[in-house]
Prior knowledge:
Helix content is 27%, strand content 26%. The chain has seven helices and eleven strands. The longest helix is centred in the N-terminal third of the chain and has 17 residues, at 44-60.
Amino acid sequence: MRPSAARLLxxxxxxxxxVDYSVKIRVNPQQTGIDTNVKHSMNPFDEIAVEEAIRLxxxxxxxxxxxxxxxxxxxxxxxxxLRTALAVxxxxxxxxxxxxxxxxxxxxxxxxxxxxxxxxxxxxxxKVDMVILGKQAIDDDLGVTGQMLAGLLGWSQATFASxxxxxxxxxxxxxxxEIDGGGEEVRCKLPVVITTDLxxxxxxxxxxxxxxxxxKKPVEKLSPEDLGVDYTPQLETLKVTExxxxxxxxxxASVEELVAKLKEAGVTAA
Length: 270
C-alpha cells in the first residue's frame, strides 16, 4: 500500500565486519580467541539486511524511503564493508571507529551505540523509523543485539524475518517470522527493529560503476566517546580451544553385535 505523503521512512542498517564465511576458523596460538589474520567481509545476515532496505525503497519508491544509512563499529578496515553497503544502494554511512587492537564490542554496547545514533538523529527529517539488521553475526553467534536495541528504545520488534511488508498508510510493518514448523505473521507499529533470516532475500552484487560512485558517498566518522558509550567488556574470555578431533567409528556385522557393543560402552535403554 502506498504511504501517505506526510510520512517518510529513514532506515538504519547496522553491518559488521566479520571473518569471511568461507574461511576455516582456527584458534590463535595464545588461545585467547580465533586467528583474525584472515579474509574478512560483511556478515552474511547483514548483507541480507542491506538488501531488504534497498528492496523496500524499490517497492515503496524513493519518495517514501527517504534514506538508507549503514553503520558499523570497528577498526579502520571496517570502512570497506561500509563502502560495499554504499555500492549496493545505501545513501550514507557512519563509522564508529575503534583502534585496530580493540576487541569486538559486546552486544549491549553495540545496542547502546545504535540507540545513541538514533537519539542523535532526533525527531526531525533525519529521524530513524526502522532498523534492519542481521539476526546474528557469524563470528560470535549471539543473536541478541536487535532485541536489546528494541528494548532500550521501547520500539516494536520482529525477529527472524523471512518477509517484510510496509503498510505506511497505517504506520505498520507486517513481518513473517521463521518459527519451528512454519511461519508466524506479526504486525508491528512504526518505529520498528527487524532482524533478518536467511530466506528473506538474496543479496545483489555491486556493479563496478556503483563501486566507483560509492567512493563519493559520505561516511561520517565518530568515536564511542562522541556517543557517550562505554565499551569496557563485561565478559572475560578465559581460554579458547579447538574441539577434540573426531575419531573413526567401527563397523558391526549384525544388530546383535551392535547391541553388545553399546552395552560394553555403558549405553542403556531409556
